Input
Amino acid sequence: MTLTVPDLAQDIDRLKRQRNAIILAHSYERPEVQDVADFVGDSLGLSRLAASTDAEIIVFAGVYFMAETAAILNPSKTVLIPDQEAGCSLSDTITAKDVQAWRDDHPDGQVVAYVNTTAEVKALADVCVTSANAVEIVKGLDPNRPIFFLPDMFLGAFVEKQTGMKMDVWMGECHVHAGIGDKEIKETLAAHPDAEFLIHPECSCGSSCLFLKPDAKMLSTEGMVRFAQSSEKSEFVVATEVGIIHRLNKMASGKTFFPVKETAVCQYMKMITLEKIHASLLETKHVVTVAPETAAKARRAIDAMLLVG
Ligand code: 13P
Ligand code: SF4
Output
């Protein structure tokens, strides 16, 4: 029998209570997935929640590296991802071997890993960062020792600019954000000249965006939500994955959000559906595990990040 969306949502709710489970969802998830979640947020907020929950089961409606982070932070809990093919093109750009090669060349180096990385890469990092805290964390590093920032080149360039620190930056990119170009931005800004401009730092337009609109705000997904809620403006042009529009509409109702690119869709995030969440809770699948030795090393870098702010 095929269940309707309300039936599925109702049964997911029943299963959650029965199994003492919590659903964490990233703000790029499908609207109906965000709506059944106990918590929706950015990578930093989700990591913090994963570290503090009392639930026995965490269903991660997000991509694999996020579920892996939750598993590293909660070795005694069951972390489930409804579709284990939900990967990340950015995380795929770098391997542990690449990081080890840099470490071998820079024995006194400091490795800063964006959370969009595998557990094996995190295990070789000194500290993790998200788009919400990268600038603050890099500012706290030793400027006299080499720094390797990975894997996002646009976030890396933004951090270098904000901190004035020189870093070796890995040339990785996210296909969704790299595809948000100057042309769409110019057109959307021209159509809404009074709107605030919110940009995710993974976008390829980084410096040209700031040239087009010097008061543009570079923010993580949750930073965008907070900014829109507290801003006096009523219109916002948004440069990131379009799933965020549902969250912005919900959290800052009465305001209007214009995505720069309607087709900026992360197909990995969209692999998570209500049907798969339901099956995940019902059949306890797919359990996310990380080898204990890798998890222990990766945890040091994640904890170093969570200590900040
Ligand atoms: P945030 O941490 O800002 O939510 O970004 C995560 C991500 O995957 C962006 O593509
Ligand atoms: Fe990865 Fe890009 Fe999808 Fe974010 S939007 S999860 S960086 S592929």
